[in-house]
């Protein structure tokens, strides 16, 4: 008989960076990881293959999550194929892309996150998980300074987090748990390399407070929020100075 894994997990933006690492850390014979990507089918397929090579199950699903029709089609396809979704990792994010219009950050980092959560809840069992991935720069916005050029993205990600908190009653009625995982700048990522070019002092200033968390460490915290019993509402990774003076 066709083996249906116990846990179906969708990771948005899993074709590279933190999402790709999360997908790979989820590799397990009892988990099916759905690797969502926007454009790069080959990269997404390589990540799915890496999950399978590690003994897990995985498939890829293309959707620009900021596009309502794409997002709806993705969720319908999951419903048809698996009949349920046990965990939704809201990792995909953006707004710093060249040529992005001024409304794009809000459409992606707020509206798309809320829409995916709304579409996911009816497919989730009791103890389903929604994990929202964010940065300290966004989580603490506007109370802390952000690097030059990052305010619009920080504001939109903060708005996405607030929009999810506004759905708490919906989550709790369905028995779904929301965990926000917030990280300091994560060493070696494209975003930090980009910020390094735009505002080198901001990156240097973060390093003064100690070693920046790694992709492995940050992804581990995200994966734990999916797999551990009774996950906390919020998990902070790195940036202890933010927390002391928050
Ligand atoms: N990097 C850091 O220092 C840091 C720190 C704290 C928190 N975080 C958070 O961690 C998460 C991942 O960050 P990252 O550094 O890994 O980002 P990244 O390297 O920019 O990767 C973003 C991923 O999201 C996908 N994506 C972007 N727009 C999309 C859309 N409209 N629809 C579907 N997928 C889309 C990208 O796909 P394509 O390849 O097709 O573009 C890519 O797979 C974000 O929520 C970020 O805020 C990052």
From TrEMBL:
SUPFAM superfamilies tied to this protein: NAD(P)-binding Rossmann-fold domains
Molecular function via GO: oxidoreductase activity
Transmembrane segments: none
Pfam family, one: adh_short
Keyword Transmembrane: no
Keywords: Oxidoreductase
NCBIfam families in UniProt: PRK07806.1 (NF005868)
Family: Belongs to the short-chain dehydrogenases/reductases (SDR) family.
Name of protein: SDR family NAD(P)-dependent oxidoreductase
Organism in which the protein naturally occurs: Mycolicibacterium hodleri
């Amino acid at each position: 008989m066709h083996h249906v894994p116990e846990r179906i997990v969708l990771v948005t933006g899993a074709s590279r960076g933190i999402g790709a690492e999360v997908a790979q850390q989820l590799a397990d014979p009892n988990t099916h990881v759905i690797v969502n990507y926007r454009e790069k089918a080959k990269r997404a397929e390589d990540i799915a293959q890496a999950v399978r090579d590690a003994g897990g199950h995985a498939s890829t699903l293309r959707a620009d999550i900021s596009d309502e029709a794409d997002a709806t089609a993705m969720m319908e396809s999951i419903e048809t194929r698996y009949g349920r979704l046990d965990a939704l990792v809201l990792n995909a994010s953006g707004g710093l892309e060249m040529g992005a219009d001024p409304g794009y950050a809000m459409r992606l980092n707020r509206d798309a996150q809320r829409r995916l959560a709304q579409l996911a809840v009816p497919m989730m069992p009791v103890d389903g998980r929604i994990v929202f991935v964010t940065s300290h720069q966004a989580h603490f916005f506007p109370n802390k300074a952000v690097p030059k050029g990052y305010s619009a993205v920080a504001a939109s990600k903060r708005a996405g987090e607030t929009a999810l908190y506004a759905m708490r009653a919906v989550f709790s009625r369905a028995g779904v748990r929301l965990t926000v995982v917030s990280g300091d700048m994560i060493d070696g990522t494209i975003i930090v390399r980009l910020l390094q070019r735009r505002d080198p002092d901001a990156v240097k200033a973060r390093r003064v407070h100690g070693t920046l968390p790694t992709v492995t460490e940050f992804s581990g915290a995200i994966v734990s929020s999916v797999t551990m019993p009774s996950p906390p509402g919020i998990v902070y990774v790195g940036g202890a100075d933010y927390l002391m003076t928050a």
